[in-house]
Every structure is written in structure tokens, then in C-alpha cells.
Amino acid sequence: MGQSPPAGRCNLKLRFKAAGIFFKNGTDGLHGPGETNLMQSSELIRQLSEQPLVRDLSVEAAQAVLALRYCILCRRSERDPMPELERRWGNILAARRYRLVVEAIGHVWPEPFAVAPPCCPRVSFDEALLAAMVGAATRRDRVQFDWLTAEMLGSDAREMLFVALENFIRARAPGRV
Length: 177
Known about the structure:
Elements: H1 7-18, H2 41-49, H3 59-76, H4 82-89, H5 92-108, H6 125-138, H7 142-149, H8 155-172
């Protein structure tokens, strides 16, 4: 009869599964009896903290992240981002509304918004949150939006940011304002 795994290992395995933590090989990182095949802690930390690539985001989210990076660069160099935003989205209304999104973020965010350099292929944690917020606003999923932002933004701040994102998304859609 096989040896049963130590009780602590079973609890850890269940906690990984409950948290939805699975690794690239489809396992929970714990294999067979004993501790010999445990994933190295540095590998676990890397996988849990690894940020997504810009190219893996939805088109809308990637464009929003890259446009935000551009707006930050323009602000630092005292340049107007509007011509590039208008070119990016093909209309001035979308450009203006995105600029309002950036202003809303600057107004409600509880700390400086972390923006990766323009050439960085990975998104910062704040940019990943922006991408998820854009996705929720695109789907008009206010519940998801609130779930994403409730711990750091009050209800008025969430409302202002959600409305700004919705207005931007409507301005980008053909035939809608």
C-alpha cells in the first residue's frame, strides 16, 4: 500500500486548487508522495507575480495601456497628446474622452499610477488593472468593474471612472456617441 502524503501537504494542495493556482503543466505544483517534486519557491513567486504581455491583452485594453503611456510621456515633456490620440482612434471625440479617462485616473487613484516605459513588453500592475477595467467597461459589466476597484476606490470615484470609460468606449464605436 502506498504512503499517504503528509497532512500539511494535502492542505497546501487544496489551498492551491481553491485559489485557482495552477502551473503551466496543468498541475498544482505538488507531485507524488514526499516533497521531492515541489516547485521551487522562486519559480512559484515568479509565476504568481509575472505580469502579462501587452500583446496578450485585448485590442481595446492594449490600446488604452499604450495610449496612457503616451499621455504620460507627453505630460513629462510638456507636449499635447491629442494629435496622436486622434490619429490612434480616428476621431477627436474619442481622443477627448480618453483624455478625460486619464484625468479621472489622475484624480481618483490613491497613489501614483505605475506606468511601464513605452518600450516595455509587460504591463505594470496598475496597467493590468486598467486593462481589466477597460474590459469590464467594454462589456458594460459594472459588477466586475466594482469588484476590481472596490478595495482602493470609493463609490464616487468608481462611478466617475466607469462613466469616463463608458463614454470613451461609446465614442470609439462607429455611429455611437
